[in-house]
Amino acid sequence: MTATPDIGARTPQLASPDLLRSVFRRHAAGVAVITALGETGPVGFTATSLTSVSAEPPLLSFGISTGASSWPAISATEHIGVHILGEHQQELAATFARSGADRFGEPTAWREGPEGVPVLDDVLAWLVCRVHARVPAGDHRVVLAEFVLGDPAGPGRPLLYHQGHFSGLRD
């Protein structure tokens, strides 16, 4: 006999975009910024969907909406930058998440890195990656990228995203 999970008085909801968002608001995620060089200059966005995929070869993945302002550059570029943000970078995360923001203007500190990829300063870690594949997934694409070089040695503690807010780790 199979036990029925006790869900109390709650009624399960049918699948919907709102249910997906509600469930994943409860999932704490690390915060990254993905960057690329587009035809008109640098582009970037905040991502909480960053995942390690494989050690051999070294692959990672992230999701991006095909409606995102950064998508045209990400869809065409060979290389992207991945930046792991520290808890001191809540404003930077918010800037790269905000539609219409001047993401690379003051006070964002960055430089041109290998392969022309914009590299953000003062992050916990960064990677330059070669795009391996862009996989259709509903209104998004899952980008698989192989990292070719990076720096894991930035000081600080990671920035987290939970319940719609940025925060740091608690001991």
UniProtKB/TrEMBL annotation:
Q: Has UniProt tagged this entry with the keyword Oxidoreductase?
A: yes
Q: Which SUPFAM superfamilies match?
A: FMN-binding split barrel (SSF50475)
SMART domains listed in its UniProt record: Flavin_Reduct
Q: Which Pfam families match?
A: Flavin_Reduct (PF01613)
* Domain Flavin reductase like stretches: 24-168
Which keywords does the record carry?
Oxidoreductase
Q: Which InterPro entries match?
A: Flavin_Rdtase-like_dom (IPR002563), NADH-dep_flavin_reductase (IPR050268), Split_barrel_FMN-bd (IPR012349)
PANTHER family named among the record's database cross-references: FLAVIN REDUCTASE (PTHR30466), FMN REDUCTASE (NADH) RUTF (PTHR30466:SF1)
Q: What is this protein's name?
A: Flavin reductase (DIM6/NTAB) family NADH-FMN oxidoreductase RutF
Look up and give the organism this protein is from. Answer: Streptomyces pseudovenezuelae
